[in-house]
């Protein structure tokens, strides 16, 4: 998606990710050892990827969305961009309340001219294509706004101080979820008209107060909001019951050539030589891309970017690695962990290892804890021991749907 496209997009997605998630703030139980204590829930891990990433992927897969706006705290911008990877974003600053955050997101999207605006809570990772299609259908049929909802099946009682008091009628009641979608002109006007001292229940309430006609479409249990610590395991079972691990390995080697630096994991490392290759000869990212392709049973770099094609001469290896990562996401999967070993006598890798981890994590939309970069020598043996070049091997662990087949390849 290109937020700078010339024609107005059909829709824009506004993802509200500015909350602190106090009630759910903990290391998610299903990803024990991989979360970060005190991290807001939208950045916690669920099924191998950040909760925010689930919604980003759902919107990015639908070509009707011309842009995604993420509303977040300024100090979380880098983390949001890491979650997004190669998915294009616009960023807006969160306000003190959700209402203020949505208003900021709408202002950021105003110049795009999108016909429809979809406002979604980042803490609802289970957004599926059926719900999006239903929302679009309601808007295209003439509704001012629409939202997914689920009927209430349980008995409702008023309880005070832990004591059941009075039964409540449930006929016609629904639990409204997000995304809540509107004609852009209407929701912009509704927020502009909202009194500053009002704190509405949600975006539907803002639109209703402006006189809008709102339709309810069928929601989904997978769209439940993560609120409490126990919700992590429940949502993992709902969203990723059939994601199975697959492991791929890759190996590459390049000989030294005239130059003043070598490129490893996207980092230019000063050296007495460069590396020979059709592209930028980033031996580390080449091996990692092949490991990801291998886990997908999708061949190797040469299959997707033939060295006989002149357009790839001198190309940045970030293109290859980003493509491999996008293939995983297009298959409905996620990268869980990558492990790289760089094999050379020189240059020294240690001083540059942290930068290599950071660049790799950012490109693939991973946390740095999901990326391992190591280095070793061959004790003077072989072509690397003779300082004739550099080799690298990599392993990638990915999660793919159990019914993943060969159609993608």
> What amount of the residues lies in strands?
25-35%
Q: Main sheet, how many strands, which sense, barrel?
A: 8 strands, mixed
> What is the CATH H-level superfamily of the largest domain?
Spore Coat Polysaccharide Biosynthesis Protein SpsA, Chain A
* Highest CATH level, the class of the largest domain: Alpha Beta
Cα-to-Cα separation, first versus last residue: 23 Å
Tally of DSSP helical segments: 12
- How would you classify the helix and strand content by structural class? alpha/beta
Helix content, binned percent:
25-40%
- Structurally, the number of domains stands at 2
CATH topology of the largest domain: Spore Coat Polysaccharide Biosynthesis Protein SpsA, Chain A
Mean pLDDT reading: 89
What is the architecture of the largest domain at the second tier of CATH? Alpha-Beta Complex
Name the features.
409 residues, alpha/beta, Spore Coat Polysaccharide Biosynthesis Protein SpsA, Chain A, 60s Ribosomal Protein L30, Chain: A, 2 domains, eight-stranded mixed sheet, five-stranded mixed sheet, 12 helices, 27% strand, disordered N terminus
Q: Could you walk me through the main structural features you see in this protein, from its secondary elements to its overall organization?
A:
By secondary structure, the chain is α/β, with parallel strands linked by helices. The chain folds into two domains: 229 residues, Alpha-Beta Complex (Spore Coat Polysaccharide Biosynthesis Protein SpsA, Chain A); 159 residues, 2-C-methyl-D-erythritol 2,4-cyclodiphosphate synthase (60s Ribosomal Protein L30, Chain: A, 2-Layer Sandwich). The protein is 28% helix and 27% strand. It has twelve helices and 19 strands. Strands 1, 4, 5, 6, 7, 10, 11 and 12 form an eight-stranded mixed sheet that branches. The chain has a five-stranded mixed sheet with strand order 16-13-19-17-18. The longest helix is centred in the last third of the chain and has 13 residues. It is elongated.
